[in-house]
């Protein structure tokens, strides 16, 4: 199928002309109510089948811009961050409750290790490492599993199966590419972390969106229902499942029993389970379980970005089944060579006693901020407590406004925009996390409390003042 749109038509449809499409860096402008990139996207809406069509892939729509890249949604929290930063640079007192980025820097032991590695003596070269990363770091990771979780076999976490990655995001690309082919179906939770959807889409995978249950999670029960529904409807089977527990955005956690059932179901149904455990270490009383306790086939992905407070160091890891060692090694060699050597070197300090003591203090701060937010939300009578996700782990509170608190054009997307423009408080609208074919994205929103206790307090004060004025607007629009 040929798919070529003359540049003149693009220029007509999008007032900003073709330049924006020829230069991906020009995609941040507003194009009526849609962005420039969306303007193009709306013209190629539902063209995902094109990505699957080898003939089309060979023929680019425009020089230098692939259809694949144009099919990818923005990571909306980064759009919110960009606008929040813009307001901040204009001198506004912006409260950042949008990104999941710890306010604290990396642990002091890690910073010192980085400085001494760079300055010496002896001054380290910081050349390439093995594709899977520094062996001592992989040994520490292996030990971490053996120390923290009961029943993980040493074989499952052998250093030969541990891959140090460029953040967990680098791990997603490696895992998805190693496990799935174009056209494969991968199940994700809705609500869930947006980049799963966006990266899988870019790789030409199809998505099975599974709605979360009343406890804001998906368990073996919901997966089984979807497997059976697809069988009955004659739809393609599910090849993979990716989930995070604790979840971003809901903060819900699978119990060890629920995780075990999910691992077993995936093994029985030949579904490659990818367990994103990036928020492990940040939880408030519930037991954390790893898929490595229950399955030899699951892939576990983790990162230094959250608990270890090293988001910009771009360092994460995966534990993979034996069968994937060779393919992932080849992919890592070609795609990344290795994760940043300076970050790997410094991260060797991550499990020192002093480091853990510092990191545990951060968790205490998250616990306080979490209470501030949950208490403030409970004061808002219009919000149904059942519509506030449990926030058992991670550093997010996810809220559903409910049907009564929205009006046409005045859902959570407009609310987050108004809150940012009027009160300089940045929350993330739910459309980052929800199945785009439904309407929940415009009813839900996420508050991040990774930015510190003072930020959480001030943000909730401003939200409290804003809320009645917002409700008046909603009522007037009904
Ligand atoms: C669930 C989840 N997985 C992965 C990531 C990406 O993290 P990294 O910095 O390790 O790439 C995030 C970031 O917010 C996340 O929330």
TrEMBL record:
This protein's UniProt keywords: Aminotransferase, Pyridoxal phosphate, Signal, Transferase
An example molecular function term from Gene Ontology annotations: transaminase activity
Name of one Pfam family that matches: Aminotran_1_2
Cofactor(s) listed in the protein's UniProt record: pyridoxal 5'-phosphate
Keyword Transferase: yes
A GO biological-process term: amino acid metabolic process
UniProt-listed InterPro entries: Aminotransferase_I/II_large, AspAT/PAT-like, NHTrfase_class1_PyrdxlP-BS, PyrdxlP-dep_Trfase, PyrdxlP-dep_Trfase_major
Signal peptide: 1-20
Annotated Aminotransferase class I/classII large domain residues: 98-462
Family from the record: Belongs to the class-I pyridoxal-phosphate-dependent aminotransferase family.
The protein, known as: Aminotransferase class I/classII large domain-containing protein
Organism: Helicotheca tamesis
């Amino acid at each position: 199928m040929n798919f070529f749109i003359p540049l003149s038509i693009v220029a007509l449809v999008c007032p900003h002309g073709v330049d924006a499409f020829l230069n991906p860096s020009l995609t941040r402008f507003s194009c009526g109510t849609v962005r420039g990139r969306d303007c193009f996207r709306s013209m190629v809406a539902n063209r995902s089948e094109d990505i699957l069509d080898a003939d089309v892939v060979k023929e680019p729509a425009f020089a230098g811009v692939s259809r694949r890249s144009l099919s990818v949604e923005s990571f909306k929290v980064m759009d919110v961050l960009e606008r929040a930063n813009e307001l901040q640079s204009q001198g506004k007192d912006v409260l950042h409750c949008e990104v999941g980025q710890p306010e604290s820097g990396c642990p002091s032991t890690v910073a010192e290790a980085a400085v001494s590695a760079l300055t010496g003596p002896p001054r380290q070269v910081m050349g390439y490492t093995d594709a899977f990363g520094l062996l001592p770091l992989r040994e520490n990771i292996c030990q971490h599993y053996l120390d923290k979780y009961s029943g993980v076999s040493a074989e499952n976490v052998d250093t030969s199966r541990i891959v140090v990655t460029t953040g967990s995001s680098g791990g997603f690309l490696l895992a998805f590419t190693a496990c799935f082919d174009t056209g494969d179906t991968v199940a994700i939770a809705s609500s869930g972390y947006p980049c799963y959807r966006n990266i899988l889409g870019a790789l030409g995978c199809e998505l099975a969106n599974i709605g979360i249950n009343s406890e804001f999670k998906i368990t073996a029960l919901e997966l089984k229902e979807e497997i059976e529904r697809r069988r009955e409807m004659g739809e393609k089977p599910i090849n993979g499942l990716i989930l995070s527990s604790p979840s971003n955005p809901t903060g819900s956690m699978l119990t060890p029993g629920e995780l075990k059932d999910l691992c077993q179901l995936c093994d029985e149904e030949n579904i490659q389970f990818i367990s994103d455990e990036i928020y492990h270490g940040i939880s408030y009383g519930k037991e954390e379980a790893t898929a490595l306790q229950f399955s030899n086939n699951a892939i576990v992905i983790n990162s230094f970005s959250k608990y270890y407070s090293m988001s910009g160091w771009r360092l994460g890891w995966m534990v993979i089944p034996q069968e994937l060692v060779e393919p992932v090694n080849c992919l890592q060699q070609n795609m990344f060579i290795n994760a940043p050597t300076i970050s790997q070197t410094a991260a060797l300090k991550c499990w020192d006693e002093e480091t853990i003591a510092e990191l545990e203090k951060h968790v205490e701060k998250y616990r306080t901020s979490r209470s501030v937010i949950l208490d403030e939300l409970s004061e808002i009578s219009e919000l149904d407590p059942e519509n506030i996700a449990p926030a058992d782990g991670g550093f997010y509170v996810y809220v559903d406004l409910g049907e009564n608190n929205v009006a046409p054009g005045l859902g959570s997307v407009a609310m987050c925009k108004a809150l940012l423009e009027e009160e300089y408080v940045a929350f993330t609208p739910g459309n980052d996390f929800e199945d785009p074919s439904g309407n929940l994205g415009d009813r839900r929103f996420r508050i991040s409390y990774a930015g510190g206790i003072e930020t959480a307090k001030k943000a909730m004060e401003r939200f409290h003042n804003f809320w009645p004025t917002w409700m008046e607007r909603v009522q007037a629009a009904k």
